[in-house]
Predict the 3D structure of the following.
Amino acid sequence: MLNKQGRDSMRILLLEGIHQNAIDLMHRKGFSNVQVLNGALDEAQLRQKLKEADVVGIRSRTLLTESILSDNPHLQAIGCFCIGTNQVDLKTAQTCGIPVFNAPHANTRSVAELIIGLTVMLMRQIFPRSMELHRGEWKKSAQGCFEIRGKSIGIVGYGHIGSQVSILAEAMGMQVYYYDIEPKLPLGNASAVPSLKDLLAHCDVVSLHVPQTTQTHNMIGADELAIMKHGSVLINASRGQVVQLAPLAKNLKSGHIRGAAIDVFPSEPKTNQDQFDSELIGLEQVILTPHIGGSTQEAQANIAADVATKLMNFCSKGATVGAVNFPALNLEVHANAQRLLHIHHNIPGVLREINRVFANHDINILGQHLNTLGDLGYVVLDIQKGANLDLLAHLDQVKGTIKVRLLA
């Protein structure tokens, strides 16, 4: 597949109300053909819109499935303007030669601050007291209300967000414990525990910060909830599939779990107009929030700048640093050179055949960088300006080629 587009003709589609920062950055860098839609699209609309796009930017509601991506192999890049990429079939995107970029760290602080706020509100029973006042009831009492100072918080997943929660919680006087499947150095006075069961059994607050994987699917169910310390609270602002909500509701009603805060759900409405339903509705000791862990103005601005920059670096230079499904390459730009990108299946002999094409056309290679990731190979080449670009057709015929692109 050949492509010779320049910045001004690159068709960029941004869905789900992506922050204005992204649009402004793209315009300043010469990417003027940007279409912005505030909401997500249904599958039929999405398929149609992608036919008219070269780059697409999404958030968490848009699903780029195997079927949708296979129907749109012409896409040059995908930007997930959020932390996760589980809404994209990464393997299919890789097979189609489409790098996927995200912003894994840009909203870390926003989520961490929310966790601390939820911890305080759960330990102080703020929401039940608030609802009582909304009903005209005045029940001033310290019963069942506690400071978080001196209490223990167990952090499941000690990555970028979990470690930030650790720092803030310790600053508030909490004893911090964490569990992670990978060895992680503690920050401050945090202590690692050997197993999830140990953490659940001994902590007053349990906060989940794990990705969506087969290992974390239904990680907190009836058995795990039974292990949790009596009167403890559970916070999930990670992924909706991590906690089984029916047994959680049962444990909340029995009083074994004194409170919970849930920001993510197994099934979430696709638009703000759709109805939300959950087993936890009506339980006053539960704080429900609509997947807003990273939804602050600061976080959205940072995410927009981060992902937009990665997309523009790929479209203008072929840089794939930050792509989750592509080999990482960032070749320095050579003066007076034309840049070519060659995406191919990782099979023996591809680089030899690419170089043979240039040799047969008497073209000097000024810079070349190859990297592979699994079944995918990626070459960035700088060649002398003024070269006969008929060679693009020959490069496209190299066995294993997925895409060849000339950066204008």
User: Anything to note?
Assistant: Residues 297-317 form the longest helix (21 residues). The chain has three domains: 1-107+296-326, 108-288, 327-408.
